[in-house]
Specification:
Distance between the termini: 50 Å
Shape: globular
Oligomer: single chain
Number of strands: 0
Structural class: mainly alpha
Strand content: under 5%
Largest sheet: none
Order of helices and strands: HHHHHH
Length: 150
């Protein structure tokens, strides 16, 4: 992604991140957009005096809020998920602190996600998608309701 100006603490990872996006199957345009988001975040980190060791979900959420306040699109933590997962796999950003299941539905959903990863061999992105797809069922089941009834 030679056309993206990349400075700040994430600059050393720009090329590897672009390769990771290609490996994940991102088309060129969305991949370029992801790299631009990473470059913007990197510049903000530098201005804020932060480095990759402080790149937590809370920090990225704060940056997303800054973008949203400025009227920019793609202002959620989810927009940065691929970048965060890449940096965490490299060991340069901290793993998220697990909150742990809080409700019976969350516990069931976490078991389902773990089963998908271990037994079905899906990627974490696919498991997350399936988890959200069955969330309404799990919430009804955990509440003792029959699925499909109000």
């Amino acid at each position: 992604m030679e056309d993206v100006q990349f400075d700040g603490p994430l600059a050393p990872y720009a090329g590897g991140f672009a390769e990771e996006l290609a490996r994940l199957g991102f088309a060129p345009r969305p991949a370029r957009h992801q790299v631009r988001l990473a470059a913007d975040l990197s510049a903000w980190l530098a201005e804020s005096g932060l480095d990759t060791a402080g790149l937590t979900d809370a920090v990225v959420a704060a940056y997303a809020a800054v973008r949203q306040a400025a009227g920019m699109r793609h202002t959620t933590l989810a927009a940065f998920r691929s970048l965060l997962e890449y940096l965490r796999r490299l060991g340069v950003s901290p793993e998220p602190v697990p909150a742990g299941p809080v409700t019976p539905a969350e516990s069931l959903l976490e078991e389902f996600r773990a089963w998908l990863l271990a037994e079905r061999g899906v990627t974490s992105e696919v498991a997350r998608g399936y988890r959200e797809l069955v969330r309404p069922f799990a919430e009804q089941h955990a509440a003792g309701q029959q699925p499909g009834t109000p």
